[in-house]
Write a structure and sequence with these properties.
Blueprint lengths: L1 H4 L6 H19 L5 H18 L4 H10 L8 H13 L6 H20 L3 H25 L6 H4 L2 H28 L10 H10 L5 H10 L2 H32 L2
Helix pairs in contact: 2-3, 2-4, 3-4, 5-6, 9-10, 9-12, 10-12, 11-12
Length: 253
């Protein structure tokens, strides 16, 4: 939706370069390249190309995330065998023994790293930066809200509020029911519809992505009203979802 609805004039040359970069990422994935710096370098080029093309560069992050390898190369059984080899490796005083021990240690280091997929390693690497730096900075930069009576009565504020507090839970419940009735999904026996309704209400909590979309969609005259709708809907959705879930879990035998 960001790429389709909130992009500017397209520069086809830059877009072609971005597409070529995506094919390059796919190619090095199929070749079995596991070095994360390689993906960072190619990904940075794709991000710059997509940003220059007129499409919001968020799309580049989504595509790169979907292309990052999710499989691990070394199973737990293989890792255990390698570590047992390291433990039993003779560590004598001869130069050949020491060289063989170092090779075993290097092999075990690679094996331990490759028990995690590149996606898992990236998640572990980026999680502290995203949670404790990027997200708080984004929130501080975008959540400033001067309250006014005009914003409170704005149709935009009420439309956003209704979309979060009513549209989210109704949509989740309706499509969940359709999925179960059509046989596309099955509902766990210990999860009642009341619990699903509570989860649907909690889905009305919107912050970073909602503020991001609002900033793209509305001009300066309406952005404060949209922020008011987002923040007030988040408070109401959180309180309502917790209340419904507390009631649903207390009522269970």
């Amino acid at each position: 939706m960001v790429a389709i609805g909130y992009s500017g004039q397209l520069a086809w040359g830059a877009l072609a370069l971005g597409g070529l970069g995506v094919l390059c990422v796919r190619g090095i994935t199929l070749l079995g390249v596991r070095a994360i710096p390689v993906y960072f370098l190619v990904g940075a080029g794709i991000w710059l190309a997509v940003d220059a093309s007129g499409i919001h560069a968020t799309l580049a992050g989504v595509v790169l995330g979907l292309l990052t390898p999710t499989g691990r190369w070394v199973s737990e059984e293989r890792l255990q065998a390698i570590l047992e080899r390291v433990v039993t490796e003779p560590s004598g005083d001869r130069r050949s023994d020491r060289a063989e021990a170092r090779r075993a240690w290097r092999l075990s280091e690679v094996a331990i790293r490759e028990t995690l997929s590149p996606v898992e390693r990236l998640e572990m690497l980026l999680h502290p930066w995203v949670s404790f730096a990027i997200m708080p900075l984004f929130a501080l930069a975008n959540a400033g809200l001067p309250l006014s009576a005009a914003d409170t009565a704005s149709p935009v504020a009420w439309a956003v509020f209704a979309g979060f507090t009513l549209g989210k839970p109704v949509g989740i419940l309706a499509f969940g029911w359709l999925a179960v009735r059509s046989g596309l999904a099955s509902r766990p026996p210990d999860m009642g519809w009341a619990m699903l309704a509570g989860g649907g209400l909690l889905a009305g909590i919107g912050f970073t992505m909602a503020l991001f979309i609002a900033d793209l969609a509305f001009d300066a005259a309406l952005i404060d009203a949209a922020k008011l709708g987002i923040l007030s809907a988040s408070v109401v959705s959180a309180a309502g979802g917790l209340a419904v879930l507390a009631w649903a879990t207390r009522a269970r035998p």
